[in-house]
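Self-study notes.
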Amino acid sequence: MVTSEAARAETAAFLLLDVAGVPCALPRAAVSEILPLPTLFRPPAVGPLLAGFLNLGGAAVPVVDLARLFGLREEPVEPGPYAHLVLGADRTTAYLVDRVSDLVTVEARAIGPVSGAETLNGCVEAEISLGERLVHALSPARILTAEERGRLDALARAAQERLAALPVA
C-alpha cells in the first residue's frame, strides 16, 4: 500500500504557462499568486526585459516579461486578454506570461532532467512529458542571472523610493 506521503514524493505539482507560444512550467511551490494583468508603472529607461512595476500593497514588485527575457519576442506587444502575472513565492518578483493554463500533478517518471549547459543560466531544469508534448520546467532561482537579479533589485529599490515619496491618498 502506498502512503499519501510516498505518493506525494512520487509526484510534483506544476503551474503550466504559455510564454509566446512555448509551453513552460513553474513548480507550484515557487508561486505565491496568479494575478490578472493590472496597470503597471513603467519608469523610463528600465530596459526591454522589465514590463514595469506592480504596486503590491505599497511594495514595488518588478515584473519580468518572460517572452522578451527568453528572446521569444523582439518587440513589446500589448498583452492579450489572457495575460497574467505570476508572483513568485517570495513576492519580490513577478513574471508576465501570455497565459496560465493549468495546475497539474506530474508523476516523477514524466519529468526528465535537462543539462544546465543546454539553457541560459540553466533556467530550464527539466522537461515534463504531458501526453504528446514536452513542457520546459523552469528553475525560479535561475530564470535571472546573478547580474540581472542585482540590477533588478536596484531598480526595485529606486521604484520603491519613488513610491514612498508620494503622499497616500
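Second protein, same conventions, sequence then structure:
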Amino acid sequence: MEEQKAPVTFSPAIRGTASFLSYLLHPLFIPLLITFLCVTALPEYFGAFGKESVRIPYDMLYARVAVTCVLFPLLVVALAKALKIVDDVKLQDRQQRIIPYVATIIFYFWAFYTFKRQGVSPDFFNAFFLGIFIAIVISFVANSFIKISMHTVGWGGVIGFMLCLMWGMGLNVSIPLALTFLLAGLAGTSRLVLNAHSNGEVWLGFGVGILSQVIAYLIVG
C-alpha cells in the first residue's frame, strides 16, 4: 500500500506572512481593484460615471462595485456564521461554501446585468463582470467534487482580463500583466503554504479564472 505524504509544514513566520497575503489578496477585493485600474488608465471610457461623482472622481462607481461585490458577499458570510450555518468565515469545508457561492453568483450577475443594462460602461468592463459570474458558476459546480481555490480563480481572472485587453483591444498592458503574475503567484503560494489547497486545486483555479474571462470577452467584449 502506497504511503501518503505528510503535508509540508512551515515556520510560524512564513505561515503568518502567507495568512496576511491571503487576506490582502482576497478575491473579493479584485472587482474594486479592476475598477480602479480601468478608470485610472482608461478614463475616456468612463465619462458617464465621472459625471455622477459626488466628492471624488468616480466615487459613486466605486461605491456601487464595493457594495455589490464586497459588502453584500461579506454580509452573507457573516449572517451564515451568526446563524451557525458555517463554522468558519474562511469556508474551508466544501459543503459550507454552498450558500456563499449561491449568494455571490446572484450578486455578480446583478453587477454585470445592471452595468450592461445601463449601457454607459465599456464592453470590456461588462465582460469582466460576466467573466467573474461564469467563473463562480463553474467553481460552484466543481465544488461538488473538489475544493477549488477561489484565490487563484480570482487572480486567474485578472490575468485573463489583461490578456483580453492585450489581444482584443491591442492595449499595452505588459507591466500590469507582469505585476498581476507576481501577485497571482503570491496568492497561490500562500494558499499552498497554509495547506488550504492542493497543487491541483490551485492550478485549476487559475485555469477557470483565465478561461472564464476569455469566454466572457468573446460574448460581450
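Instructor comment on the second fold: The longest helix spans residues 59-82.
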